[in-house]
Specification:
By secondary structure, the protein is an alpha/beta fold. The protein is built from 16 helices and 20 strands. It has a nine-stranded mixed sheet, with helices on both faces. Strands 17-16-18 form a three-stranded antiparallel sheet.
């Protein structure tokens, strides 16, 4: 059973169900948990009194609520993302990797990112879409170890600032994220505890008392956005190859997610030798595959979201352009390989620093990559200008990437879909091209490529009268030539919603009838973010993450 007094390890004030109390008080925690347990169980039954037969799921269904016509007549609720267009709230996900990869540190940084909304913790690997409370159970960590890790991790990304007004007196100022981190992040060290959420009775798996206590604890935390469970082996405690038991375990995690409305992330291991080729070399793609996760297939099958991490040998890191002098284990590769409600992710890379801190890094470009990019930028810019002069329909980024690689590959062999989209990104960031939002043939607002921010575009139909809200964007975060498959379909649609993350100058630039555009500035090294977010590319204001994120379902 989890020792609830361990919640004080953070010295982090949190909020209890009653506004006047805080979860920093162990008495308040215990009272909240006991109240939740009373509701979960049959505490009100008198001893000896016959109990009613428990009703199953199907016995309580009201079929009137499930008429398909309602799904057609009413708009579904908007998706509530944990990360931008990835991992829905109220669902279960896994982070899988080999022993010693750095999964616990990665989960710690995930928790800090969601608790604060600060994008620096994960860079562009995973971008938090919301800010809220995080409950993290570290089953293998003692209080002193977790204490050191949290302090070191937070200061690595959010250092204390020094400010001097008169040149003599120096005032130390906490990072803007510190208040949210103190309030929202609840980390519980639980090494040495029996934490199994499943127990066997009569040959069947059933929820243990630990599960009911965890559920009650999580439900007592208002505004809970994410629950982290590290690792799965300590919480499962049964035969990991037993599919029936694994299904029960995953059902409990789903129940935890649905009852709290929070995402549940569980840390898992991959099988031994899954990343080795026949010649003994390391297979990065195999290590990042969904099937690499160890144990019964029921674990991975039940997850709605899965991310794999792999520690790269130096040779593999150098071959992928991550670090020209990379040594074994200095870099990690990661990928979202399962996302039932969102597009799959691209491979990303993290640098493991001497203290274990994981920092997002961009792969290096070779001279060949740079030459190809310059050639494609010239070709793309010429095509956009030609269409404007000939009054032909303007191109979107998606149309350009879907159609023109096949036309250009004979004289530009490297003109793949990924390379073309990366070149568009470079052209936008360098100011060679712009994006202007206009209504297309489908009557919907789309972003079209233009050689000038004020050039009227032909989109295949007459422009509607009146003022049409539009915007110009100068950058698009698209993958470079790292051997990764480029985004398409729903993935591309989601990318079209992202802007530069650069500071809005507030200038309105006229661009023909029925358009209104915002002038922006950008450069290649910009950290790109959604237009709806704060203009600071490093640390957005808390207001931008307190509301439900925009965006549609990617299915």
């Amino acid at each position: 059973m989890i020792d609830l007094n361990l919640a004080r390890a953070q010295q982090t004030p949190t909020v209890a169900p009653e506004p006047a109390k805080t979860l920093d008080d162990p008495v308040a925690i215990t009272a909240a948990v006991q109240a939740g347990l009373a509701q979960e169980g049959a505490a009100g039954q008198e001893e000896g009194q016959p109990q009613e037969e428990p009703r199953g799921f199907f016995a309580s269904l009201d079929l009137a609520k499930f008429e398909t016509g309602r799904f057609l007549d009413e708009e579904p609720p908007p998706p509530s993302w944990i990360f931008d267009n990835s991992f829905l709230a109220g669902t279960v996900g896994f982070v899988a990797g080999a022993q010693g990869t750095g999964k616990s540190r990665f989960l710690l940084q995930i928790g800090a990112a969601i608790a604060t909304g600060h994008r620096g913790f994960l860079g562009d690997a995973l971008r938090p879409a919301r800010k809220g409370k995080v409950l993290a159970i570290f089953c293998e960590e003692s209080r002193p170890v977790l204490w050191r890790r949290i302090r070191r991790m937070f200061r690595a990304f959010c250092p204390i600032r020094a400010e001097s007004e008169d040149g003599k007196t120096v005032t130390l100022l906490p990072h803007p994220a510190e208040t949210d981190f103190r309030t929202n992040f609840i980390a519980i060290p639980a090494a040495g505890q029996d934490l199994r959420l499943v127990e066997m009775a009569g040959g069947e798996a059933r929820p243990s008392r630990n599960f009911h206590e965890l559920l009650a604890l999580a439900k007592s935390i208002p505004g809970l956005a994410l629950t982290i469970l590290d690792p799965q082996s300590r919480l499962y405690g049964q035969n990991e190859n037993d599919n029936a038991c694994a299904t029960t375990f995953c059902s409990l995690l789903e129940h935890l997610a649905q009852e709290t409305g929070a995402g549940v992330l569980c840390c898992a291991h991959v099988g031994k030798g899954v990343a080795k080729k026949r010649d003994g070399s390391f297979d990065v793609d195999a290590a990042l595959h969904q099937d690499a996760m160890r144990g019964a297939s029921g674990f991975s099958a039940a997850a709605r979201w899965q991310l794999n991490l792999a520690s790269l040998p130096g040779k593999a890191a150098r071959a992928r352009g991550v670090g020209s002098k990379a040594g074994d284990g200095q870099y990690l590769a990661g990928k979202v390989n399962k996302a039932n409600d969102a597009p799959l992710g691209e491979v990303f890379y993290l640098h493991r620093e001497h203290d274990g801190t994981l920092r997002y890094v961009e792969p290096e470009k070779t001279e060949e990559d740079k030459a190809l990019e310059a050639q494609l930028v010239e070709r793309i810019t010429a095509e956009v200008r030609r269409r404007e002069e000939a009054n032909e329909p303007a191109l979107t980024i998606k149309a350009l990437g879907d159609v023109f690689p096949a036309r250009w590959k004979e004289d530009i062999p490297g003109a793949t879909k990924t390379a073309v989209r990366a070149a568009v990104s470079a052209a936008l960031l360098d100011g060679h091209l712009f994006e202007v939002q206009r209504r297309g043939g489908n009557r919907k607002l789309n972003f079209y490529l233009s050689a000038s921010p004020d050039t009227p575009l032909s989109t295949g139909q007459e422009e509607p009268s009146g003022d049409v809200g539009t915007g110009q964007r100068t950058g698009q975060e698209l993958p470079d030539r790292t051997g990764q498959k480029g985004p398409s379909g729903a993935k591309m649609a989601s990318l079209l919603d992202s802007g530069t993350g650069q500071k809005d100058t507030g200038q309105n630039t006229p661009s023909g009838p029925g358009t209104r555009m915002k002038s922006r500035t950008g450069h290649r090294t910009a950290s790109l973010s959604k237009e709806r977010e704060n203009t600071c590319p490093v640390f957005p204001s808390s207001d931008s993450l307190d509301t439900e994120p925009e965006g549609g379902d990617a299915e």
